[in-house]
Every structure is written in structure tokens, then in C-alpha cells.
Amino acid sequence: xxxxxxxxxxxxxxxxxxxxxxxxxxxxxxxxxxxxxxxxxxxxxxxxxxxxxxxxxxxxxxxxxxxxxxxxxxxxxxxxxxxxxxxxxxxxxxxxxxxxxxxxxxxxxxxxxxxxxxxxxxxxxxxxxxxxxxxxxxxxxxxxxxxxxxxxxxxxxxxxxxxxxxxxxxxxxxxxxxxxxxxxxxxxxxxxxxxxxxxxxxxxxxxxxxxxxxxxxxxxxxxxxxxxxxxxxxxxxxxxxxxxxxxxxxxxxxxxxxxxxxxxxxxxxxxxxxxxxxxxxxxxxxxxxxxxxxxxxxxxxxxxxxxxxxxxxxxxxxxxxxxxxxxxxxxxxxxxxxxxxxxxxxxxxxxxxxxxxxxxxxxxxxxxxxxx
Length: 372
Prior knowledge:
Elements: H1 7-28, H2 37-46, H3 49-71, H4 75-104, H5 109-112, H6 117-132, H7 145-166, H8 177-181, H9 195-217, H10 222-227, H11 231-259, H12 270-291, H13 297-308, H14 310-322, H15 335-371
């Protein structure tokens, strides 16, 4: 059976496009046009990318582990590799903060050291690698898939349940320590997306990928190999996740009404909110992966390339939506005009990924020629 799995990368590419449109419409559409049905639909789509990227990062870890098991790679080597990747993403988070500060100015250390999406993805990768990529038999032991599943399950349940009690603790932290604490729980002006409870979405992605691999193993057809699992089952996964998201969204509002207050990470309703958004991320994975075999080759390869370069696309597009580079458009466009600009930004973001890949390929060729 072919080992190629493009469904996860296609899903990441789709999530990148949804992310770009969400930020661009939010930044560029004039206030008087934000009550339209078209704009509100972009808000619904805009709720998908954040949990989707975490879900897909968890799925990517499982695919990396599967490759390690297939090669007989010791667990310690795989764990170190994935952990290094997590810390690299965390580092890119801080470099991104610095780049945006240089472009648009900074509000002190709160801007440079704030905890944002890349930080939580990086830390979540490290957590799952350290807890889940283990194996029996000492340093030379292979990865235990069962250990990975148990670690992922724990990371789904424990941070989510503890969120209402842990989240308020960050408000009492002062001084330099707040920048470290902000990575894990809410700290005013510093936390944007803390590890508690967002790590649960990455862990959910790992569990879903393990399920997909079981489905794929039972169906050796090229279609299932390309998508990552039989498309019919992926569509079923997406439909079930959509139902869970709808029920959890309804339950979130009902619980807030019953208990009073407003939704926050310190409110018990956050439990259902975490379920709601995690399920939305699963919808992106299920639908995009299921459709992968039927996407024509050239668009599919473009989505795969964009998905593998989603970090570049993220860093590139934000200044055009909220920063100085997009100042001429901010809050001034109607929906049709904004749509044309959104498509142009998607093309530019893909171009940034394409250019990065070309430069990387040239460096690799130069290195090989130098060695030769």
C-alpha cells in the first residue's frame, strides 16, 4: 500500500485559505457592511482555522510517529525530533512578534512576548512528544502507539476540565514571570491563546489520526491511501463532528444563561466551548481529507504546498489585514471589493510559500554541488 498521505496537508492548505479570508474580511470590510449575511458567513468560517491548525498539528505528529515505527526508529530519536520541531515553532512565534513590532510598533514587552497561536502550537507539540512518544525496552525501544493514544487522551481531558480553575490564576502574576505563565493560562494583556485548554485540540487531532490510520489499514485502495482513510468514513467523521459542534454551541449558550456571567475560560461553559471548537477543527480535517482524491492534481499539489508552508502563509498575510501594509484598505471596503482583495491576498500568500520552497530547493542543490 502506498504510504503517501496528502489528506492532512490538503486540509492544512484549506485551513490556510479560510484563515486568510477570515482575517482579511475582518480587517478590510467597512463597519456598515458587517451586518450583511455574506460577512456573517465569513465569521462562521473564521471560527474554523484556529482549532483546525491544532487538530492538524496533532495529526501530523501521528503520521511522523507512524513513519518512525515503520522504519524501526527508536522512540528516543522520534521524540527528540518532534520536540525540536515544537520548540522551533515556539521560536517562530517570538520572531513573528518581533517582526510585527518592527512593522507596526510595539506596546512594550507585552507585544514582543505575548503568547499567540504559534506559541500554543509549539508547546502543544512538545507536550505530546514528551508524554506520548515513548516505548518499552529502554532508549532503543520503538514508539508505542498505545502510549501515544493514552497521552493524547489525557491531554484532551485534563487541561479542558482544569481550565475554569487554572485560568484565573494568571491574573495574579506580576513581573517577568507573567510572560512565562501567559504561555499556559490567561494573563491580561499577554495571553492571546494559552496552552490551557487549547492543547486539547492538538491531542484530539492525534486521536483522530490514529483512528484514520486504522481505517486506512483496513482499506488498501489508492483512494484511501491518498486521503488518509476511506473518504466515506471521513465524510461520516465530518458529519458527526458537525453535529457535536452544533450541540456543544447550543449547550454553551444554555449553560451561560443558566449559570449567569459571560463566556470566558474561567466559566464552566468553557468545557462545551472547547468541545464545540475542537469539533469544528475535526470538520475541516474530515471534509478536506475526504475530498482530496477528487481534487485535480495541480490544485491538489498547490494546496499541499500551501499546507506544508502554512506557517509562512500565516506570518505573511497578517500585516496586510491588521498592520501597516493594509492600512489603505482597513475598514473601507464593501463585500464585493473585499472579495477581490481577499483572492489577491490568497495568491500573494501562496506566492510567498512558493518562493520559500524555491529558495530552499536552490540551497539544497548548492549544498549537494559543494559536497560533490
